[in-house]
Amino acid sequence: MLENVVSVSPDTLAGEIAKTKYEGFRFVTMTCVELDADTAEVIYHFDRDFTLKNFRLKAAKNADIPSISHIFMAAFLAENEIQDMFHLKFKGLIIDFNRTLYFDDNAQTAPLCRYTVSQIKSPEPESIQNSGDV
Amino acid sequence: MFKMTPTILKNFLTEKATRLYPFEIREPYAHVRGELVNNSETCNFCGICAAKCPSQCIKVDKKSATWECEPFECVYCGICVDACPQESLSQKELYRKPSAERQHIIIKGEIRPEKPDAPVA
Amino acid sequence: MQEAIQKTVQRTTIPFGPQHPVLPEPVHLKITVEDEIIKEVVPALGFVHRGLEKLIDIRDFHQMIQVVERVCGICSMIHAMCYVHGIEELMKIEVPPRAKYLRVIWSELHRIHSHLLWLGLFADSFGFESVFMQFWRIREKILNIDEATTGNRIIVSVNVVGGVRKDLSQDQMRWILDELDQIEQMTTQLESTLFEDYTVKKRTIGKGLLPSRQAVELGIVGPTLRASGVAQDMRQLGYAAFKELDFEPVTENNCDCWARCRVRYREVLQSIDLIRQAISKIPAGEINVKVKGRPQGEVITRVEQPRGELLYYIKANGSKNLDRLRIRTPTFANIPALFTMLPGMWLSDVPVIVLSIDPCISCTER
Prior knowledge:
Largest sheet of chain C: 3 strands, antiparallel
Oligomer: heterotrimer
CATH architecture of chain C: Orthogonal Bundle
Order of helices and strands of chain C: HEEEHHHHEEHHHHHHEEEHHHH
CATH superfamily of chain C: Cytochrome-c3 Hydrogenase, chain B
Structural class of chain B: alpha+beta
Distance between the termini of chain C: 52 Å
Helix content of chain B: 10-25%
Radius of gyration of chain C: 21 Å
CATH class of the domain at 36-110 in chain B: Alpha Beta
CATH topology of the domain at 36-110 in chain B: Alpha-Beta Plaits
Largest interface: A-C, 38 and 41 residues
Structural class of chain C: alpha+beta
Number of helices of chain C: 15
CATH architecture of the domain at 36-110 in chain B: 2-Layer Sandwich
Shape of chain C: globular
Number of domains of chain C: 1
Order of helices and strands of chain B: HEHEEHEE
Strand content of chain C: 5-15%
Mean pLDDT of chain C: 86
């Protein structure tokens, strides 16, 4: 039910984002969603006059994603967060915390990735509901 | 420069804005969500509260008829009180006193024979 | 002699925070100074990261309401409201009109007490502690209203999917109006102290400039953006009952710390007015509807928090646990403002400027 969704590829991303900036959109944030074991989806949200415009980027987990922080400087925090949480890599980040925005230097896990965490025990993400405690 | 002076002078004449808390306790408002208590006589150990609790601080075992609660994990949201079909759970109007030790509440009820048409939780 | 000159322009890096008397929450800034003038600033986060977004794996979508309320203590009700708006949109639930108005009343109460807290902390940041005490004394009244009407003082837990859990009686509404009159009168008494005092003006006017063009470019939200003259307030989206209420976004054109203080001060009065309107227009009827089924699909909801635009992205797959919950809090968007505000300022102005964006680090890191 997202409105104004445009699919982009890593090659066309920078051009589309730069065009969006030229049209007067404001960078809102980026969301990363894990799709399956190999791919994740990065959604870029932009706003102009209370209307959202979204770009969907399907990205392989082991490939680099081009950073948009040189176009929208505000994106650097969101990109660093995605690096931390999903173990993705953004190429060309203007301030790269190198996965230490939230974690210690030697953190290896990707907390919001279900597949890498739960694959050994059970392939179904559903079945871990009851086993975990906080 | 002296914009605050009238306020400060007024503060001398009005009552204090603070209380010496443990010695002086304000009357609680009605329906304040304080300490959680369970009435062991009305509880039928259905386990709805344990399933609904957002902080998962309640454990219910229907077979042995026990109701357990970690009171310092409770977040005083009152979801379990709203959900309780027996209206056995309730909240006092005062908050639980701080404690240096961990507390664990266990309520044991009598094990009722299972009726064939008993409502299933 | 030449050596001495070189020494004076040498750059020094000064760590600011995470523990600092003026900071209510831990954020670390690496500030590079030349003499006493700030040249560069790099923020570092990660002191209060709790991983609340991960809790969707073990909590169902009803229980998540209580989790998202704890993202931020100050604006807990607004977090929950944003979340239930998303779930209601996914499940196509029409909320009763009375519940919408009640949500407006509680969310505006939260906005008032958040702004009063901030006004106090801001006064404290330049050492004006008696104003700090006065504002926090006014805030106590709001907390009492929350406690009497909902049962808890700060994390009020009134939102459920499909409506609200508590209703306001006629007596309670009359009492709220009386209290609001007092709050308004006490707040306006402090206006001249906060905006006309010589020392306060010296510490705030012209500090931490954020021109409007740069503010939009950096994606700044909320009062920080409105203090730069951009009239953008997510309440204009008309969520809950805001489309039936009459209000104009508060804006100031000075772009500095004084303007940001002024915007928040005026928003306190605006929120008082909004609550009065809501109480006068509130319809009778149900306060919640029965909810059956599970959410499916993806949705973005945005509401206005005291600190600015709050965005929730919810992806659900029809099971009782959500697939993904993304929370973008306003401070997350406002931190880049420090890159523009701080360089060129004196080191002694850092506390005032950092506080002027109303940083809520627990929100930011979740």
